[in-house]
Specification:
By secondary structure, this protein is mainly α. It contains 4 helices and no strands.
Length: about 80
Amino acid sequence: MQGGASELFMAGRRSITSIFEEYTRFAGKKGRTFDLQFIELFDTKLVEVSVRRIQQEKAAQQSLAVAGSMVGTILERAQSLF
């Protein structure tokens, strides 16, 4: 096993066997050997990059929202002075 779901096994998060068992229960009679091969070879690093990017984008959006709120407050106070 190299890469993919086997990395989860190596990291101690989930065993490849438990992943295969879950797939088999879910897929039932529609399960295919190719699907199991895909699961085994899936590169989890791609998912981690995507999750990290989503987290960074969310943090940036929150920062912009805070900044926008602060600008709005400053403008309101400035208008009240005139």
